[in-house]
Amino acid sequence: MANLEHIDILYEGADAWNNWRKESPQIKPDISKCDLYKVSRYWMFAHISITSKELNFSETDMREVRFKGMNEFIFDFTHSNLSNVDLSQRKLRWANLNNADLSYAQLRGTNLFRAKLIDAKLTNTNLTHANLIEAELNNAELHYANLNKAKLCRAKLIKSNLYKANLSGAKLGNSDMRNADLRGADLSNTNLYSVNIQKAYFDEETIFPQDFNPLNAGMIYLSVDYENSNLIEKLLINKKEKKYINPPPRPGQVEFRENVRKAYDNKCAISGCGIEEVLQQIAGN
Alpha-carbon distance 188 to 169, whole Å? Predict the structure, then answer.
């Protein structure tokens, strides 16, 4: 439930809100379900002077907030909860959305030019026709996301999770998708020839544009049974949720591990998996 005191501070103006955030960095605001259109209208009719061009919503609970207006600001949404929010057609150029939760959000046609979405959670998010030109999406969780006809030219998607994402018709010119998980993704009607897609993963369900050869582009084919697929899901998709502190290696452990990997052609002796990230995770546990 939203904290009414936090919403009252927001009604005092953008400057008052930003100053409060600086003075109380330990507080994580809750303005869930707040109508920002009403807030911006109040600022206008109350003649509240606003000098700041930025609005600090970092670490803020903004679930189901109504976004309208406020297009003049550059937003800081780092570590914020924006799940199920409708941000369609909003201007979020240069916004900082690193580590934000945007799962199930609506961002249809949203302008995210040069936005930062590193480690952001965009599971099942609707990004159709969104402008993500030069956006930073490294390590972003985009599985089942809808990126149909989105503009991703020169975007960075290194190690992003695009498992079963819809990228049909997306503009991907000169984007960087190295080590991305593209298993089951739909890449039909795209042009991948200027995309850096080396060591990205694909499987038999990945849909490529006609005449595109993923192996020639340096991609890694991955075909595993259901049990091994679950293992890879846990190690690749959810690897950020758990952090392990490994003990010092036992005497001779490193040499033994390297000898085993050489003997099995750098693949797991049990599953046959050859993905470097998976092998490193297994070796570290």
Answer: 6
